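Each lists sequence, tokenised fold; shown next:
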Amino acid sequence: MYSNKAASRFHDTGRTALRLLLVLLSIASSIVFAQQPLTLDRIIAIADDDVVLKSEFDMRWESIQAQLASIQGPRPDETVLKKQLLDQLIIENLQMQMATRAGVRVDDNQLNSALNGIAQQNNMTFEQFRQLLESQGVYNTTREQLRRDIIMQQLQTGAVNNRIDITRQEVENFLRSEAGQADIAPEYRITQLMIEHADGAEGSRREELADFLYEQMRQGAEIEQFIAAGQVSGIPVRGSDLGFRKTEEMPSIFQEVAPQLTLGEISAPFRSESGWHIVQLKDLRGGANLEIQQYHVRHIQIEPNEIRTESQAEDLIHDLYRRIQEGEDLSDLARQNTDDESSMVSGGDLDWITFGQLPPDFLAVVQDLDIGEMSEPVHLQSGWHIIELLEKRMQDVTQENMRYQAEQILRQRKFENELENWLTEMRDTAYIDIKIEPENL
């Protein structure tokens, strides 16, 4: 019912005439009129159907100089840096032209979302971040540069991924390797509380405290509150958040404990040479183990079309629902009436489907149904539906998830190299005319 398409096209119409005009403009921009105090911008390079202006170069170069000022010791050769900067501006210009032809766009909502993400990373609200940029006079410049960066990133992702091929054998070899198994291993974020060891009666008292604190946490007390207190009943208590770590990166005493915990679970006190420990699994990321909810669904879909109005579609779906209520089979009616061609032959049966395969409004209806229950006619974005939930299950898709993660890791490893190749090919096949050499900028 739903599909996505991506298309790009390239053309050279009028390029020769445009180049001639750009050359004339470049010549004109270099003329200094004694009677005119206005400083004209200058074209420093022609890149296919567009130009790189000196004002663009100067703005970037000021930023680079500010960074160079903070460098201790020998500084890079400025002529080399200027050449690299000019090459970067040309490559960006070519990408923006390609993105325009391919229809890649970033609207203000996407841009604001990206800016908000940057603000949050710096512990600021969007408004605080905006005010900071405005106070420095760079808000509009930052927005437009970020827009360009996002557009180029989207263009690169689409173009370069199409050049990368990951074979099934590569995936299998990766999963069999030690490095591959380590890469897809889960990362555990644990917080540990420790009560140091003591001898004799004091040691027994500390063991009893560990058991007491464990019971308190099982009843809802937070592990952090005991750590923050520093001591309980006069006995020192300490601990820390270990952050995200793979099993082999943890202290050895936690390597068997952490993987056995479910998210949020607290371990029973256990002993080491240092003392008594209690561990809570605060977060978990990565790993291949995955179970997903699947639904076995059948439905009838009715849409308005060239010969059926919206009102007629509504009348038809309610008539079909009445006939089902009176004993007719949903499958038979779906074969004869449904507008969903993908399930017409199967009598409306969609087989087992997972979360990502369902439109959100359709999924919401399915999730509200009990097994064997059929919905009343419901109007969704895709038209009118009668939906029946036949079965549901939790399906282990660990193997599929492992292969997916392996493919993503292999793809990322190839991406940077293929990106460099793509950019080099883009520049080599473009018309580039340097009007002002970098050493003269």
Observations:
- Residues 398-429 form the longest helix (32 residues).
- The two ends are 56 Å apart (CA to CA).
- Residues 1-38 have pLDDT under 50 and may be disordered.
